[in-house]
Amino acid sequence: MNDFYIGLITTIVIIALVEILKFLEKRLIGALTLVGIAFIYIGFSWNDILSLTYAILGAAVFFVLSYFGYKNNFILIILGLFLHGIWDILFPYFSSTAPEGYGIFCLTIDFLLAMYFYIRVKPLKTI
After folding, report:
1. What's the predicted TM-score (pTM) here?
2. How many domains is the chain built from?
3. In angstroms, what CA-CA distances link 66 with 42, 72, 77?
């Protein structure tokens, strides 16, 4: 349960910073967050080839979602954050490289940030 609370506090701090620093573009922060959290697993998996392969494939998927979400349809970033939360829970079943408790911690952050960005980011206007 501590993993959830730490994830909740972390998310509150992230959202507070984004809200206080109004000059930050929320669309870009969402895209960078999705890419960054995906690449963390590569660092965990460095010593296990099979886990590293899964992590690289996952990072590639989240990178593509992030890019096209930023350029075309932000809902892809929101979807990517939800999918990454599921990834956080499933990854330990395929690999022993993720730290204990990391899944719930990250799932909390991913889902809450997805909800935040869904509420706060306006769709791009088409001309």
Report:
1. 0.90
2. 1
3. 17, 10, 5
Tokens at residue 39, please? Answer: 């690449």
Q: Is residue 6 part of a domain?
A: yes
| Residue 61 burial (C-beta neighbours within 10 Å; 0-12, 13-18, 19+) | middle
Residue 66 lies in a domain: yes
Distance (Å, whole) CA 105 – CA 80: 17
The answer to whether residue 126 sits within a structural domain is no
Residue 125 lies in a domain: no
Find the distance separating the first CA and the last CA of the chain, reported in whole Å: 47
pLDDT in tens, 21-73: 999 999 999 999 999 999 999 998 999 999 999 999 999 999 999 999 999 99
The three-state (H, E, C) secondary structure of 18-81, written as one string = HHHCCCCCHHHHHHHHHHHHHHHHHHHCCCCHHHHHHHHHHHHHHHHHHHHHHHCCCHHHHHHH
